[in-house]
Amino acid sequence: MSEHNTAQSSDPQPVVGILGAGRAGTAFARTLLAAGVGVDICSTRPPKALQHHLTIYAPGANPVRPEEIAVRTRQQGPGMVILAIPQEELDEVEPEWIGDSTLVDATNTWTYAGEREPLPGWLDAAVTEQLPSSMAIAGHFSPARTVKALNHIAHSEFDDAAGRDLPMTQRRALAVATDDDQARGLVMGLLVRMGFDPVSLGPLAAGRVMEPDGPLFNRPLQREDLLPYAR
């Protein structure tokens, strides 16, 4: 088990799990920690090997084994795991690690020189049929409640874009799409805490506009820019 002290106080700190400790995962971790949210994070490296990397890129994040990624967030709330690994590695993630937690799909399908990155068969089939990748991810990771979010902002901009001290009208807007209203509320609340203005686009299928070839991808958006795409 992780060496982190899991003893709970009468008012335990909320914790979010992050699957993936690359540039996106550590950017999310830094912003969550700055907002007073604990972070459990994992990668292909064992926790002890990951610790030095986190000391540099996400100080304060707690390295855990992949099978532990949802343990503390389910115990202390909000029961949320952020998926921040390349889609080509999704078959390395066991659905039971996440269980019925809220799964924030921050992944994207990338094309290089006209060729799509290698994908697991179940995901490649969905993308070939021009379905939003999150819909396939939701089916694969059932019974997790999948929410598309955090994928249409560059990780290199994430720290500076989080405006916790700004009024909502001046914050950068981030889109959210899901078929589960409870999960929608949890993710939107977390985005507010992190310093963003969340805008619901509606069902999970609406997240198609958030993907790399969509109109919302990697643009500094305000609420009024997102509202025309809400269903």
From TrEMBL:
Domain Pyrroline-5-carboxylate reductase catalytic N-terminal: start-end pairs: 16-108
User: What are the alphabetically sorted keywords of the record?
Assistant: Oxidoreductase
Task: Give the GO terms filed under biological process for this record.
Answer: copper ion import
Molecular function terms, GO-annotated: cupric reductase (NADH) activity; ferric-chelate reductase (NADPH) activity
Q: What is this protein called?
A: Coenzyme F420-dependent NADP oxidoreductase
Q: Does the keyword Oxidoreductase apply?
A: yes
Show the taxonomic lineage: Bacteria, Bacillati, Actinomycetota, Actinomycetes, Micrococcales
Highest taxon, organism lineage:
Bacteria
* Pfam families according to UniProt: F420_oxidored (PF03807)
Which GO cellular component terms are attached?
Answer: plasma membrane
